[in-house]
Every structure is written in structure tokens, then in C-alpha cells.
Amino acid sequence: MIRDLRRGRFEVGLELDLHGLTVAYARENLGLFLTECHQRHIRCARIIHGKGYDSENRQPVLKQKINLWLRQREDVLAFSSATRRDGGTGAVYILLRNPQKKKAMTPVRMKLFRLFLAGLFCGLCITLPSQAAQKLHFHTIPVPVTAEAQQLTRTSPGVDLGEGTVAIGYHPLFRNGDRFGDETFGLLHDAHGRPLKKEDGSPRISNSNDFSSLL
């Protein structure tokens, strides 16, 4: 697969030209471009970054940055300099993960899955009588109007079970960045399972609103 990528045998579905852009603007455009590739189910894309002839000290600044940024992306399976006909060292082929394939379970996800199974065996499930289950009714909550309210996790304050009412709530177990044992929840990994790091060496935590919880 890598050999075919280097030889330009994959059909390029989408192309992005970053030649001449600043580092900050190039990074923003790269993120938007990869998002679009994902939405359009693109497997192979090409990015033109130039050879750095017009930059200070005639160094390929964008090429070096793109090399780093692509290594930090979970959706990038592999990348390689383009063939001469497609720009040579001034461009790069990107092979994106197949969105139809399921993601491999990372060590963090595996531990959370084990915790979930342990919870099941410890009796975290509530068995209701059949007649009560037929009268199950969750209390209503107001519809969030503001943008801030829409980002909050909201649950019904209680549920009616037959003749009685039970108070319920939302209890997060782990949020992105929380540590349990020697693991960090939400820590991003590359295709080989190695933790990703930012440019300053700190761990790269997913910025998605992702956490595990119990009702």
C-alpha cells in the first residue's frame, strides 16, 4: 500500500494548494480540507506545499510543518512525497483511513470497556417489574435556547415508576484529560498505538465532547 502511494498509483480525489500561505493559515486550511475529505469519503488526496524557494533561508517551512501535522492526525493512514509529475518534493500524497472501517480499540477504550463490564456484573442495572415498566415516564426538561445551554449535558430530574417517583441524574465517570491509573482518557494515538504529542511535548487530548457516564 505504501509503495503504491509513493508511486502515485492511487487516484487523487481532492487537492489543496497551500503554496505561499503563512503557517497559521496553512494549518487552518489543512484541517478544513481533511474534514471535507472525510465528509466526501476521499481515500487519497494531494497537498501542494511548495519547495520553500521563496521562504526565509530558502527552507521548506510548510513541508516540515505539514509532515508534523499529518503525523498528529488519526484520520491519516500514510503520506508520501508526490511523484515528479505531481509536484515531486513540493507536494505530498495523503492516504486517508477508510471511514467505513471500525476504529481499533485503544488501550484507554479497552480499560473503559472492562470497567463497563465490571459494572454490569456488580449489579449496576435495575430490573423493574413488568407492570411498572409499562408506566415509565421521564420528567420533562426545558428546551435549551442559548448556545451555552445547548452545550451542556441535561437529563430529566426524575422518572415516574408506577406509583412512585425516582430521582435520577447524570454522573460523568471520565472526561477528556482525566487520568485513571497510568492512562489518560481522551489521549490521541497514532496508527501504531503510540500517544500523540503537541509541539511543546505535552500530550494531545481529543477536543471532542467525549466522556463516559452513568445515569
Q: What is the arithmetic mean of pLDDT?
A: 76
Shape: elongated
Major sheet: order of its strands? 1-2-4-3
Please tell me how large the radius of gyration is. 24 Å
**Helix vs. strand class:** alpha+beta
Residues in β-strands, percent:
15-25%
Order of helices and strands: HEHEHEEHHEHEEEEEE
The largest pleated sheet is described as:
4 strands, mixed
Helix content: 25-40%
- In whole angstroms, how far apart are the ends? 45 Å
Low-confidence spans: 123-133
How many distinct beta strands? 11
Tally of separate helices = 6
What does this structure look like?
The protein has 215 residues and is of the alpha+beta class. Helices cover 26% and strands 20% of the residues. The protein has helices at residues 2-6, 23-39, 61-71, 107-121, 130-133, 147-150, and strands spanning 14-17, 44-48, 76-81, 91-96, 137-138, 158-161, 164-167, 171-175, 179-180, 183-184, 211-214. The chain has a 4-stranded mixed sheet with strand order 1-2-4-3. It has a 3-stranded antiparallel sheet with strand order 5-6-7, with no helix packed on it. α2 (23-39) packs across α3 (61-71). The two termini are 45 Å apart. Mean pLDDT is 76; it is low at 123-133.
